[in-house]
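REVIEWER CHECKLIST
Item 1: Sequence provided? yes
Item 2: Single chain? yes
Item 3: Sequence as submitted:
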Amino acid sequence: MNATPISNEIALRIGLAARELPDTDAARLLRVLADAVGLPPTEKKLSGLTVKAFKAAQDGEFADADSVALKSALGYLKGENTLQAEPLPEIESYSEGDMPGSIRVACASNKSEMLDGHFGSCKRFLIYQVSESENRLVEIREIDDAEAEGDKNGYRASLIADCQVLFVASIGGPAAAKVVRAGAHPIKKPQMGEARDEILKLQRVIGSKAPPWLAKVMGQSPEERIRFEQEEATA
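Item 4: Structure as written out by the authors:
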């Protein structure tokens, strides 16, 4: 007896949900869904799927999955997240030397100009050049894990090797270590939101009152960082 086919819309949901989960393709996710809701997965079955049931399915296949990525995947499965591609923000012109004293910042993103991506599953990195007086979105780097050659975290870290700061919704310890080795300072923002909002917050602390970690990534000398720390302590 032939299996009932999966509708095109449900297949799209599964594909998008799989992209939200690290090291997951549609086939792996479908095996978990078969245990969680049965085959074929339908809109009605998926609408009743809970995080608890999802994590317990297939002997806990996703029991240790990051909660941010898991909720995002479930949103796609239930049709709560938009299935249409959202327009990407416009790139702003930038040439080396345009913004003296600036740093380069990456934001893990899945849609539009949002900071909403897990390091291991985000679709792209938004790249900003940020100084004390301005910020510009200078590049959008799409991620193709097919190019990872067996080391996905290393590949993703290499994409932001020219950045000093990485904003990300969540990141695991081993991945964070590779980001640090690549030269970036990872900062988790689990609440997510507009990437530009975080960039503006960062912009406000660039300069003479930069905290020690930021002064370090900006290349300020230890003597300068100590002076700033002492000024903060006596302010």
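Item 5: Key structural point noted by reviewer: The CA atoms of residues 12 and 83 lie 8 Å apart.
Item 6: Recommendation: ____
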